Inverse folding.
């Protein structure tokens, strides 16, 4: 029987690539969750920057920050995203563009046809076919008016469409939204990464932790890893138990 080899695509964080047997599984979706300020957006910036340097076409759906703020944060951790944006290799879409497209549909059809009334799968309308990498930051922006079941249905639909188009995607979601949708987003994605800030019980120091509860077709340990954000972005420090 032939073994299915899942190609890998660099996460942009070298320590994480090692942990994930080479990177995120290609043409699949990963969900990154965590509380505010923990480093989720920076995770996305690493992935986008590395993908751009590898010549991949990238789309960032940014619901919270404007392009200039994104470039500024990237620069602080030593990543130049602006050049890729200016050359068109990186496209940044805001929530407003997506809302506007929805309004355009209403204008075009005179009403919101069934099937088009869903908000989350319509993200795909703002992504060109030749895109390789999609980062959605923050998926929580799409959950606010949805029931848990509707969110799950729409997120499943979106993932199905993304896989059909061979996008490698990183969905970023804040903990508040993630808990509101009762963490059902877990079931739709290929891999899960949780970022946390908590107090080290031995030192009393508040630290950043990463936990990887699941990545299909990847052999990973469940140990928590302490990480830090530096002028070079995210670096892994040590497994939790070695303190
Ligand atoms: N160069 C840096 N050195 C240290 N910490 C940084 C640096 N750049 C950003 N940070 C930290 O990263 C955090 C923001 O990360 P971000 O990815 O925006 O969080 P999230 O998206 O989870 O809300 C801030 O709390 C800030 O303290
Ligand atoms: Mg963020």
């Amino acid at each position: 029987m032939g073994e299915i080899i899942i190609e890998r695509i660099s996460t942009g964080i070298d320590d994480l690539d090692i942990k994930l047997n080479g990177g995120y599984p290609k043409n699949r979706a990963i969900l990154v969750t965590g509380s505010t300020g923990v480093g989720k957006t920076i995770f996305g910036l690493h992935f986008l920057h590395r993908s751009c340097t590898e010549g991949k076409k990238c789309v960032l759906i940014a619901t919270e920050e404007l392009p200039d703020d994104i470039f500024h944060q990237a620069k602080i951790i030593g990543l130049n995203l602006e050049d890729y944006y200016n050359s068109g290799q990186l496209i940044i879409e805001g929530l407003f563009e997506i809302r506007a497209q929805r309004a355009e549909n209403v204008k075009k059809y005179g009403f919101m046809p069934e099937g088009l009334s869903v908000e989350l799968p319509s993200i795909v309308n703002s992504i060109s076919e030749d895109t390789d990498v999609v980062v959605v930051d923050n998926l929580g922006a799409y959950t606010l008016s949805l029931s848990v079941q509707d969110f799950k249905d729409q997120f499943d639909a979106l993932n199905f469409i993304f896989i059909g188009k061979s996008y490698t995607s990183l969905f970023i979601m804040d903990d508040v939204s993630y808990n509101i949708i009762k963490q059902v987003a877990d079931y739709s994605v290929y891999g899960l990464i949780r970022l946390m800030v908590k107090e080290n019980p031995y030192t009393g120091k508040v630290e950043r932790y990463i936990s990887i509860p699941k990545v299909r077709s990847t052999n990973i340990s469940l140990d928590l890893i302490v990480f830090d954000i530096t002028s070079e972005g995210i670096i892994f420090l040590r497994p939790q138990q070695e303190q």
User: Anything to note?
Assistant: The first helix runs from residue 14 to 19. Residues 114-118 have pLDDT under 50 and may be disordered. Residues 34, 36-42, 76-77, 229-231 surround adenosine-5'-diphosphate (ligand 1) (CB under 6 Å). The longest strand covers residues 206-215.
